Amino acid sequence: MDNFFILLCVGFLIGTLGTLIGAGGGFILVPLLLLTHPELTPEVVTAISMGLVACNAISGSIAYARIGRIDYRAGLLFAVFTIPGSILGVMATKYVPQDVFQLVFGGLLIVLSVFLFVRKKATDQLLQEPVPAGMKKATLTDRAGTVFSYAYNQRAGILISVLVGFLSPILGIGGGIIHVPAMVHWLHFPVYIATATSHFILAIMSSVSVIVHAINGNYNDPQVLKMVIALCIGAMCGAQLGAFLSHRIKGKTITKALAVCLGIVGLRLLLSHFL
Question: What is the pTM (predicted TM-score) of this model?
Answer without folding.
Answer: 0.79
